[in-house]
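User: For a reading group we're discussing how well predicted structures match intuition. Take Glucose-6-phosphate 1-dehydrogenase. Before you show the prediction, I'll give you the sequence so everyone sees exactly what went in.
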Amino acid sequence: MSFDLVFFGGTGDLTWRKLMPALFQAFRHGKLPEGGRILSVARDDMPDERYREWLKERFREVEGPKRPTDEEFERFAALLHYRRMDLSQPEHYQRLKDWLAERNADTVVLYLATSPHLFTQICAQLGAAGLNGPKIRVVLEKPLGHDLASAQEINKAVRSVFAETQAFRIDHYLGKPSVQNLMALRFGNALFEPLWRRESIANIQITLAEGLGVGTRGDFYDRTGALRDMIQNHALQLLTMVAMEPPSTNDADAIRDEKLKVLRSLKPFTAESVGRDVVRGQYRAGTVDGKAVPGYLEEVKVPSDSACETFVALRTEVQNWRWAGVPFYLRTGKRLAARDAQIVVNFRPVPHPIFPGGNVANKLVIKLQPEDGLELHLLAAKGSSHGESLAPVSLDLDFDKAFAANRVGAYERLLLDAIAGRLNLFVRSDEQEQAWRWVEPILDAWEQDTTGPRPYTAGSWGPPAASALVARDGFAWAEEQ
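Assistant: Thanks. Here is the predicted 3D structure of Glucose-6-phosphate 1-dehydrogenase, as structure tokens, for the group to look at:
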């Protein structure tokens, strides 16, 4: 299958830090379809060879075994092309159309790796140029809007040009192997699904923690914040994967229909419940990995009086028969104690313990990063004597070791799916809008709250109020258990 893949924003950080390395890995693994061309477009004026040299220099920053050898890069570079393009000029879209028409590939993927405020303009220009035929797909990078109204505006612009089946809204967390194995765990095995309900599960925790600060992205982050950057998309998508009902098939819309039902079942926030069930924080100077780091207000391009949140923890519920009364805790933040993304399913303890120490509950830990795997925490007898107390043990599955030969990264998987036209791991417009609809009361309440975010020390696990949020129900975050 021949394909043309076009990156709008071809010299931007996302393209050279994430997308091009992911494509190279697909090329190295022999998974990239034969007969492909990769075109980057941006405002700079340079010939193909200069762009290839520029990208080669960027690739030198890739560490470890993922860095290409010179011979590997030369073979990959043969696929790479570059064209100057002013996204506001209709004639430049016509030139792009002419370039694509040179060989009439089977599939054309247009990846908008630009600022989201350009999406409506780009889609309108693509439609005017006739670059929206049935073999063309458009990939939209997050964040899609900054609130419900802006998200709806973007989706309206996309739908005016492309069919829903042509629109691939990307959330790279859905491409992580552990998330895919969450589906397999639940719907490919008979072991867990009978227990996956309120009678057996006490609570579910989703943590997306980062040790890094905002770096040089202070101006962008200050307009965004942790709620928009991580909760509205990544965390909620993970929640839907955990809580969804079994779909009738593995078809994209069957899966996305069930995810949408979860989003519609989430307990809505009010101004009162935001104050009770949501904690926002902002990091202060502290120590991470033994190094002193500045507070958020001292970061580059961050206003000294900023009220932007760098941490969010919240409690919610899925109001349906399967999950009624089970709290879901979502947490994300920057400059936390560790880089750690995981889903923890805490099961209820046995109803009548007969062993000393036997009232510790089991839990399933789905690890997303930096490791990638599953841990099942159980209790076992320490010895063989009668009345021996129990001790915790764990069964640990490392996916990187178990499936080393077949592992692909999140962006690699999603790029290959976009080329192949597989929509299963992409977000539908009604899902995305419902997620915005659910978080908007939080944003509205914060607009009226003059107290601002709670401070927390860099290198900690966030404000103490986040621990109190969970403790109120008689539970604790995973690292406190």
